[in-house]
TrEMBL record:
<dbReference type="Pfam" id="PF01261">
    <property type="entry name" value="AP_endonuc_2"/>
</dbReference>
<dbReference type="InterPro" id="IPR036237">
    <property type="entry name" value="Xyl_isomerase-like_sf"/>
</dbReference>
<dbReference type="InterPro" id="IPR050312">
    <property type="entry name" value="IolE/XylAMocC-like"/>
</dbReference>
<dbReference type="InterPro" id="IPR013022">
    <property type="entry name" value="Xyl_isomerase-like_TIM-brl"/>
</dbReference>
<dbReference type="GO" id="GO:0016853">
    <property type="term" value="F:isomerase activity"/>
</dbReference>
<keyword id="KW-0413">Isomerase</keyword>
<feature type="domain" description="Xylose isomerase-like TIM barrel">
    <location>
        <begin position="28"/>
        <end position="224"/>
    </location>
</feature>
<protein>
    <submittedName>
        <fullName>Sugar phosphate isomerase/epimerase</fullName>
    </submittedName>
</protein>
Length: 248
C-alpha cells in the first residue's frame, strides 16, 4: 500500500523562511513538486482570506491551522472563524504551556480542550492537539499525553508528530492500535542517527511499520515537516519522494 496522493501535504513551518519572502510563490512551487495539501503555521502578515486565495490559486487545499493554546480563552470563536475562512477542517493547538506540564496541568488542559472542542464541533470543525516529546513524560505513574486521550473523541483528536512520539520513548503504531480513529493528521519527519531532524525516508524511523496501522489510527493526512532544513526546497523535494515511494 502507498499513501494516497491527496493525503500528502506539507506543514508550512518547514518553509517559513521562503514563505516570509514569497508566500504565494512558495505554495505554487510546493504544488509543482506534487504536494496537494498544506497545514498553516504562521501567516507572515497575510489575512486568512488572502492565504486561502494563495492556496486556491496554487491548487492546494488547506487542511488545518495551528492556533496557540492561549487563544482557547482569548477569542477562540475568532480563531475558528479564521480556520473556516482558510477552508480547513482542523484547528490544531501546537503545544501546552510549560507551566501546565504536570498531571494537574494536563487535566486543566483536557478540560479546556473539552470546551473548545464543543465550540469547534458547533462550527463544523474539529479540534486537534499536536504533541512534543516531553508530552510523553511519566509523572506520578501517569503518561501526560494519555490524559488528553481521556477527552471525548468527538471533541478532541490529534495531529500526531511521529518524530516527537519516538523522541518521547513511545511507539506511534501502538497509539494507532490502542486508540483507533483519534489521529486524522500526522507530522511526518524523520530522525537522524544523532537524534536530530532528517528528511523523510533518509533517517532511522520505521515509517512503513507505523503506517501499517495508519488506517486503524484514522489517518487522513501525512504532513511533511522538518524543523531546521539546511535547504527548505531540497528537503521538501526529498521528503516528497520519500513519502511517495514508501510501501507499507
Amino acid at each position: 500500500m502507498t499513501i494516497p496522493a491527496n493525503g500528502i501535504g506539507m506543514h508550512l513551518y518547514t518553509m517559513r523562511e521562503v514563505l516570509a519572502e514569497d508566500y504565494p510563490g512558495t505554495l505554487r512551487r510546493l504544488a509543482q513538486i506534487g504536494y496537494q495539501t498544506v497545514g498553516v503555521s504562521g501567516r507572515f502578515g497575510h489575512s486568512a482570506d488572502k492565504i486561502r486565495s494563495f492556496a486556491d490559486e496554487a491548487g492546494l487545499s488547506i487542511v488545518l491551522e495551528h492556533v496557540k493554546y492561549d487563544r482557547l480563552a482569548d477569542d477562540w470563536a475568532g480563531a475558528l472563524a479564521d480556520v473556516q475562512t482558510l477552508g480547513a477542517k482542523w484547528a490544531v493547538v501546537p503545544s501546552i504551556p510549560s507551566e501546565l506540564h504536570s498531571v494537574e496541568g494536563f487535566r486543566t488542559a483536557a478540560a479546556a480542550f473539552t470546551e473548545a472542542g464543543k465550540a469547534a464541533r458547533d462550527a463544523g470543525l474539529k479540534l486537534l492537539f499536536h504533541n512534543h516529546g516531553r508530552d510523553f513524560a511519566e509523572v506520578d505513574g501517569q503518561v501526560l499525553f494519555d490524559i488528553l486521550l481521556e477527552v471525548d473523541p468527538a471533541l478532541l483528536g490529534f495531529e500526531l508528530d511521529l518524530y516527537w512520539v519516538v523522541d518521547g520513548g513511545k511507539d506511534p503504531a501502538a497509539y494507532f492500535r490502542q486508540h483507533p480513529g483519534r489521529f486524522p493528521a500526522l507530522h511526518v519527519k524523520d530522525m537522524a542517527a544523532d537524534g536530530s531532524w532528517e528528511d523523510v525516508g533518509a533517517g532511522t524511523l520505521d515509517f512503513a511499520g507505523m503506517f501499517a496501522y495508519a488506517a486503524e489510527g484514522g489517518v487522513e493526512q501525512w504532513l511533511v515537516e522538518h524543523d531546521k532544513p539546511t535547504d527548505a526546497w531540497a528537503s521538501a523535494e526529498r521528503s516528497y519522494r520519500g513519502l511517495t515511494e514508501l510501501q507499507f
